[in-house]
Amino acid sequence: MSLSDSLILLTLALAAEAAFGYPHRLYTWIGHPVTWLGRLIKRLDRSLNREAWPFGRRRAAGILALLALLAVTGVTAWAVGALLGPLGLPGLAILAILASSLLAQRSLHDHVAAVSKGLREGGIEGGRRAVSMIVGRNPQSLDEAGVSRAAIESLAENFSDGIVAPAFWLGLGGLPGAALYKATNTADSMIGHRTPRHEAFGWAAARFDDLVNLPASRLTALLILAAAVLHRDASPRGAWRAVRRDAAHHRSPNAGWPEAAMAGALGLRLAGPRVYGDVRIEDGWMGDGRAEANADDIDRALALYRTACGLLFALAAGLALLAWITAR
């Protein structure tokens, strides 16, 4: 698939996912690509991650598991593209529908909006229930401001690794590029943790995920900054200042970029110390605004997010048109 075809595929996939999301009936019927990848990762974890093995051997097994996951994913995605490619426009349309399942614009918006609704209609307990669906931290440790910040942080970070990153690799490498990214990101979320079981085995998945998310996290910050230009109650200057000053102080090499941009744009403080389970994680603050966020701030963040998604679509469509004209 040529670069112009990949960019056209990206544009169609973004439009399809924004319009329809991933239908619940389809999920009930056949599951979702992430669930398929998850089953393969669990099988590799069970068969290759032996607790009796020394650290170095478990790390080597984790590298082998990641390579196996990427090989299966890449070959499958390439085969699907090879089968549908010769069909012309109908094949491209089917590929776009398949590729749209690797993006999460609509579902991310709905999950974060549910936190705002939960706070408004069910108070702190309603907000905690809703935010527990999208973050790993202990919801019982969160007050209203903590729930609101957690939702906004999740929106910013997942905009990067759930939308911009798969879109970036889809535009660059077609369906195989997006599928390989999604496999890497899913592996990181499942085994890329510093726990006794996965510190060695998940090392390769975590480091590779950091690498493939580098370009998208920076692009996401720019999209949020550009979206802030179009909103009266947002500050592009604040977003730029927060990214330059704070992004590098986040414990993640990538999450700090979109979170700092969102914090600065909204005049908030995000990230900082937080509790996962019973473990307190010390982290740098993103932004220098107020920490007392609320449901209104979640709604402001969602408005920025919708605009940023529109800008991403416009960028993809513009690049697709440019590549198509150049290829003629």
From TrEMBL:
> What cellular component terms from Gene Ontology apply here?
plasma membrane
InterPro entries for this protein = Cobalamin_biosynth_CobD/CbiB
- What keywords is this UniProt entry annotated with? Cell membrane, Cobalamin biosynthesis, Ligase, Membrane, Transmembrane, Transmembrane helix
The membrane topology term of the UniProt record is:
Multi-pass membrane protein
- For whether the record's keyword set contains Membrane, the answer is yes
Listed GO MF terms: ABC-type vitamin B12 transporter activity; ligase activity; threonine-phosphate decarboxylase activity
State its location(s).
Cell membrane
Q: Which domain of life is it from?
A: Bacteria
Pfam families referenced in this protein's UniProt entry, alphabetically: CobD_Cbib
**Which BP terms from GO are recorded?**
cobalamin biosynthetic process
Pathway field of the UniProt record reads: Cofactor biosynthesis; adenosylcobalamin biosynthesis
List residues traversing the bilayer. Answer: 61-81, 87-104, 308-327
Protein family per UniProt = Belongs to the CobD/CbiB family.
* The protein's role, per its UniProt record: Converts cobyric acid to cobinamide by the addition of aminopropanol on the F carboxylic group.
The name under which this protein is listed is: Cobalamin biosynthesis protein CobD
**Protein's organism:** Microvirga flocculans
